[in-house]
Amino acid sequence: MSMLELLDEWFESEPLRGTLAAAGIRHINQGPMAVGTAFVFLHNHIGTGGSVRQVNFIDGGTEKLVSALESSAKSYGVELLTESEVQNITVDDGTAVGVTLINGEEVESHCVVSALDPKTTFQGLVGNDRLSPQFSRRIKNIKMRGATARVHYALKELPNFDGLHEELLKGIVSISPSLSYMEKASDASKYGRISEEPWMEFTVPSVREQSFAPAGKHVLSATVQYAPYHLRGTDWQSSRDELGNRVSDVLEKYAPGFRNFIEHQEVLTPKDLESRYGLTEGNLNQGEMMLDQFFFMRPTIDSAQYLTPVGNLYLCGAATHPGGGLHCTNGHNAANEIIKHLQSV
Questions:
Q1: Is the pTM of this model over 0.85?
Q2: Strand boundaries in 111-198, DSSP class E
Q3: DSSP assignment, residue 171?
Q4: Would you tell me which CATH number, out of the four given (3.30.70, 1.10.3470, 1.10.10, 3.90.660), belongs to the domain 3-56+146-277?
Q5: Sign of the CA dihedral running 187, 15, 39, 47
Q6: Which part of the chain is the Amine oxidase domain (predicted)?
Q7: Could you say which of 206, 233, 260, 267 would form a disulfide bridge with 212 (CB–CB 3.0 to 4.6 Å)?
Q8: 79-143+286-344 is a CATH 3.40.50.10300 domain
């Protein structure tokens, strides 16, 4: 079922339909008229208590969540090694026995748990030569198709968005005037092009947390679609400024004078998300979240319960059920499965 079909059954107001449809296309390379987007909408509302587009923010930013998790882990005796990139997962006779760091240090372990996406984990760290041809092919066939970019702005002052008072800027603002606008934006991606009028959602975190910017100034962060990882006839190095300009044009339309407030602009393309954060093809969910890559098929049919065909190697990231989002369910479920498995051997 598509978002178009779902919304046709319930709503007539086009601005409302567009706002609701946003949750059906977030971080996927599909428009609201594509089959399966209604499922994405439902997934994005798990745990919201029945409230549509309910958003919770972490005081002080997501860095505070990381710090809290770090403190909790250390209280249980966990040793954390930061800036310790893994070069490969050590496999002996089909079983993971540890990892080798990029500095050559070897760390032995009874089990290895990866929060990286399956392509990075198996093709990059394990190696296809240690996988069965069938499993290797399934990993290769996982669809990533990243089409999301981020554009960050440092602003001299708070822009005046038509119809939005400052209090509303504490949440997520979606520029979704209609389903046809969003579908047209997605059409460009089908042909390897950047959307002329990108669909986007943005936050102004400095409205909630004044410490995020100097006094009187603000920062705005936009999540932008559609910016396909695979461009046709050009590359992202040449197209970076083009994307930034198109995003600024859209924001200027809804906040006249926006360009005059820009002190600095940073564009993170899908290529940047891949190289900087290890997100293959810039996909924030470690694999497209459509029905053919969900439930017992996420990430593959033979690694859908956090266990993998490589002994003592487990997955716990967004590539596993129940997919992406800051809900931590993947890690919780994986931990329970790992404990059960280790207790049984």
A1: yes
A2: 112-114, 149-155, 173-175
A3: S
A4: 3.90.660
A5: positive
A6: 41-327
A7: 206
A8: no
